[in-house]
């Protein structure tokens, strides 16, 4: 299977996982987590093979992967989505400027950039209630009740 085909399948799997999360199917993590990990490995590996002499490109690709993993952690509430969200978003904007000034990128990187930008912007600018209701099948009030009981 070609590298671009693998990447398209992984990106599609990630998006399907987000849709399943919104619909309320609880096992969506079985789609989102492996696709994020495999896409991260793929991006770093291709960055090393293409740019082994350009260490800045490898570092930028590694930072890109870090932001992608942060978005997954916010979506899963492993880190609170609104905790430091604005500072993470500002770092993302600064990183994006450097990322696009320093190289030519293909379909995968640009598509992932749009996905990560949307998810980080959502966490930075939505209210907690709207963020939860937008990405989850349950209501924010139910989530708060369950959090207080535990």
Task: Write up this protein.
- The structure is a single chain.
- The chain has 150 residues and is mainly α.
- It has one domain.
- Helices cover 79% and strands 0% of the residues.
- It is built from seven helices and no strands.
- It has helices spanning 3-23, 29-50, 55-75, 85-101, 107-125, 128-135, 140-149.
- Helix 2 (29-50) runs antiparallel to helix 3 (55-75).
- The longest helix has 22 residues, at 29-50.
- The radius of gyration is 16 Å and the shape is globular.
- The termini are far apart.
- The model has no long low-confidence stretch (mean pLDDT 83).
Secondary structure layout plus pairing:
Blueprint: H1 3-23, H2 29-50, H3 55-75, H4 85-101, H5 107-125, H6 128-135, H7 140-149
Helix pairs in contact: 1-2, 1-5, 2-3, 3-4, 3-5, 4-5
Any low-confidence stretches, pLDDT <50, length ≥5? none
Percent range for β-strand residues:
under 5%
Separation of the first and last Cα atoms: 46 Å
Structural class: mainly alpha
The beta-strand count equals: 0
Number of helices: 7
Oligomer: single chain
Order of helices and strands: HHHHHHH
User: Structurally, how many domains make up the residues?
Assistant: 1
| Shape assignment | globular
Describe the largest sheet: none
Helix fraction by DSSP (H/I, runs of at least 4): over 70%
What is the residue-averaged pLDDT? 83
Report Rg.
16 Å
């Amino acid at each position: 299977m070609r590298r671009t085909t693998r990447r398209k399948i992984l990106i599609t799997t990630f998006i399907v996982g987000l849709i399943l999360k919104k619909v309320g199917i609880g096992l969506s993590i079985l789609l989102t987590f492996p696709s994020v990990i495999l896409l991260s490995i793929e991006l770093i590996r291709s960055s090393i093979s293409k740019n082994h002499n350009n260490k800045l490109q490898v570092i930028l690709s590694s930072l890109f992967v870090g932001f992608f993993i942060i978005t997954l952690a916010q979506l899963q509430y492993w880190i609170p989505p609104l905790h430091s969200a604005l500072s993470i978003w500002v770092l993302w904007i600064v990183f994006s400027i450097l990322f696009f000034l320093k190289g030519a990128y293909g379909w995968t990187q640009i598509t992932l950039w749009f996905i990560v930008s949307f998810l980080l912007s959502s966490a930075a600018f939505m209210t907690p209630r709207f963020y939860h209701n937008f990405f989850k099948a349950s209501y924010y009030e139910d989530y708060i009740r369950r959090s207080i009981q535990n």
